[in-house]
């Protein structure tokens, strides 16, 4: 499976899951409203996942580039 296909399948799964959750939530939205809200929720969820992954990568990179040693490493 290519990266594009994997991303498309992931986005479709998030869309379907969010539409079903919105449809059967306590608010009792209809299918049309649930599908439209799923279109709003899906890009937001994908962006939040991308942002979390990017921040984690940057934090790991910052940890490797730390000039001063960590306090645990100074005691050795």
Question: How is this structure best described in words?
Answer:
By secondary structure, this protein is mostly helical. The protein has a domain at about 15-65. About 80% of the residues lie in helices and about 0% in strands. The chain has helices at about 5-25, 30-65, 70-75.
Q: Features of this protein?
A:
3 helices, single chain, transmembrane helix, membrane, 76 residues, transmembrane, 0% strand, elongated, mainly alpha
Helix-strand layout with pairing:
Blueprint: H1 3-23, H2 31-64, H3 71-74
Helix pairs in contact: 1-2
Transmembrane segments: 7-25, 31-51
Keywords: Membrane, Transmembrane, Transmembrane helix
Structural class: mainly alpha
Radius of gyration: 20 Å
**Average pLDDT:** 88
Main beta sheet strand tally, sense and closure: none
Percent of sequence in beta strands: under 5%
- List the helices and strands in order: HHH
| Number of helical regions | 3
Helix content: over 70%
C-alpha termini separation: 47 Å
**Rough shape?**
elongated
Low-confidence stretches: none
Total number of β-strand segments? Answer: 0
At a glance:
It contains three helices and no strands. It has helices spanning 3-23, 31-64, 71-74.
């Amino acid at each position: 499976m290519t990266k594009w296909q994997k991303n498309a399948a992931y986005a479709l799964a998030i869309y379907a899951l969010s539409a079903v959750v919105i449809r059967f939530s306590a608010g009792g939205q209809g299918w049309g409203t649930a599908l439209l809200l799923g279109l709003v929720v899906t890009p937001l969820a994908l962006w939040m996942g991308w942002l979390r992954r990017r921040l984690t990568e940057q934090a790991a990179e910052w940890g490797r580039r730390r000039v001063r040693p960590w306090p645990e490493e100074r005691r050795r």
